[in-house]
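Deliverable D5.2: sample structural annotation.
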Amino acid sequence: MSVYINREPWKAITPRVEAAAQRVVAAMGYVGDGAHKLLPLAKGDLLVCDLSESAVKSGATNPEAILDFLKAKVTVRSRQGLHAKVVVLGRRAYVGSNNASDHSAKKLIEAAIETTDSSEVQKLRKFVEQLDGEEITKQRIQELMLLRPKRPRSPGGDILVAELPKALPEIKILGCSFVTRTASEDKAAAIGKSDAKSVSRKYGTGMHLESTIVFKWVYDRLKIGDWVMLSFEMDDQYWSPGVVTSKSKYRNSYAVWTAQPTGSEEIITGSEAKKIGISFPPMLTVIRAPQTTKILKKFR
């Protein structure tokens, strides 16, 4: 018999693995943070994953997460190019989309098939056990950890998608208006664009970049890493908080680049803002915690 498991396969798989009386074998394309809690393999079990140098360099698999399996005396093999997600217990098996990672369990919509067909279970066990590859040791993990990327990646093979923080000590609100820029202002913004793109990648993908021309005194009070909201009183709008990723100037023109997570609510009105205790600033005002939490919650 086969059963379709919708959305959250790990809720079905994890307790089955924990209670397993027979050897469990698993092929798990990519492995990230929290993997061993989701897939609690024990002594004598087998895990095959893609722990190749290319997978580590790209951030697809986190070698540090593999240490938990080695400490539990699980046999771990690396097979480059593996993308299957298969977990085989004594009399049942799971095949699905889910990598072994907190990101898969908490952020992604996954699906899997559970089968208790003895013939299919046997075939899937054979598939996993016949995957040859490099046997991983703790020494090899230490070598691979030096190859981990600086660019953030989600544990389990997907590029980290940027999100608004759940809390911030302060958010600076900038009073803005839509006007035609001068040639000098365009130049000031263009100078900082490359740095803005580079810095935004540190927060993940899905960041919308926006340049804003500001007065010098505002420019001097902002720094890279500040979280700000752009407000437009004449248009009755507040834009989603963004992080300052670049500052640049040309002659007497000053530009600030911000990056906003695109998955957040993009705009709220002035009346909506009043309900969480903020009003349009003349040019620059600072909102501090705990009120910042209300703002972030409104836009998440």
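Annotation notes: The chain has eleven helices and 16 strands. Confidence is low (pLDDT under 50) at residues 151-159.
The annotation will be released with the project's public dataset once the embargo ends.
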